[in-house]
Amino acid sequence: MMYWSVGWTHWGHLMQIDAFVNMDYVSNRPHEGTVSAKFWNTFIFMPFSGLTDDGTNKKTLLYHRSGVGHAIGAEIQTDITWQGLYASHFVDNMMSQGAVIIDADSVYTQNYHNVLS
After folding, report:
1. Rg for the chain, CA atoms, rounded
2. Closest C-alpha to 68, from 41, 38, 98
């Protein structure tokens, strides 16, 4: 599985390509039910706002699933507390996760402006 994370501006440019938008060419699989991930041209494209920017070019990130590790330190926990002073409930959600690059050869960055050229 190959993934391609792009910025929201780039996602908007991709949405202007008929083959990217048309369901005859693209599928939401394997992420059924998500509107923010599309399977197209052997990649799962996902918009992401946390990509680096060198001032002129925003980077995109391509990676293979086997080259990146993901760990869950603690499952999602929810704490709901009544705040009498404010007459409202305070809801706090917590989780612990981490990621690491296992194989640097499976991760590639590319400048945003070169992707659609």
Report:
1. 18
2. 98
Query: Using one digit for the tens of pLDDT, what is the confidence trace for 26-38?
Result: 765 555 555 577 8
User: How many other CB atoms sit within 10 Å of the CB of residue 16?
Assistant: 9
CA separation for the pair 77, 113 (Å, rounded): 40
Q: State the Cα–Cα distance between residues 105 and 48, nearest whole angstrom.
A: 21
Task: Please tell me what DSSP assigns to residue 18.
Answer: H
Cα–Cα distance, 109 to 58 (Å, whole number):
10
101: which residues sit within 8 A by CB, 6+ positions away?
67, 68, 69, 107
Query: Count of alpha carbons within 13 Å of 41, Cβ hemisphere only?
Result: 9
Note the pTM of the prediction, 2 decimals. 0.65
For the chain, the structural domain boundaries read: 2-71+99-115
What single-letter DSSP state applies at residue 56? S
Please report, for residues 19, 26, 71, 79, the alpha-carbon distance to residue 41 in angstroms, rounded to integers and kept in the order given.
Answer: 10, 8, 28, 42
